């Protein structure tokens, strides 16, 4: 069994294009982990222009991530808001 980790999405070799991610280096960290009552328009807008959005979303689903990934909000790998 292979366990996928964030390094698989963001490898040193950058074979998945992480260097093109719209959120890379974003200083607004709290925007990527909103409370359920908070709007996440900022993160969704950044994701909307991201070329690796589908890979990011798929990674969150496969690995049980929480927060905003690929323009959607996840809780332990389950999409809770689009």
Automatic annotation (TrEMBL):
GO: which molecular function terms?
A: 4 iron, 4 sulfur cluster binding; DNA binding; metal ion binding; protein-disulfide reductase [NAD(P)H] activity
Instruction: Give its localization.
Output: Cytoplasm
GO biological process annotation, one example: negative regulation of DNA-templated transcription
Which cofactors, by name?
Answer: [4Fe-4S] cluster
Q: Does the keyword Metal-binding apply?
A: yes
Chain segments annotated as coiled-coil in the UniProt record: none
Q: What cellular-component terms does GO give this entry?
A: cytoplasm
- Keyword hit for Signal: no
4Fe-4S Wbl-type domain location: 22-79
Ranges of Basic and acidic residues composition bias in the record: 72-82
Segment Disordered: which positions? 63-82
Q: Name one Pfam family in it.
A: Whib
Q: Which UniProt keywords apply?
A: 4Fe-4S, Disulfide bond, DNA-binding, Iron, Iron-sulfur, Metal-binding, Transcription, Transcription regulation
PANTHER family, A to Z: TRANSCRIPTIONAL REGULATOR WHIB7-RELATED, TRANSCRIPTIONAL REGULATOR WHID-RELATED
**Family to which this protein belongs:** Belongs to the WhiB family.
Q: What is this protein called?
A: WhiB family transcriptional regulator
Q: Which organism is it from?
A: Nocardia flavorosea
């Amino acid at each position: 069994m292979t366990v996928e980790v964030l390094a698989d999405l963001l490898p040193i070799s950058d074979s998945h294009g992480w260097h093109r991610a719209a959120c890379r280096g974003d200083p607004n960290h709290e925007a990527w982990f909103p409370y359920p009552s908070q709007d996440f328009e900022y993160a969704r807008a950044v994701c909307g222009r991201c070329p690796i959005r589908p890979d990011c979303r798929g990674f969150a689903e496969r690995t049980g991530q929480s927060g905003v990934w690929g323009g959607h909000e996840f809780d332990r790998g389950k999409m809770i808001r689009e």
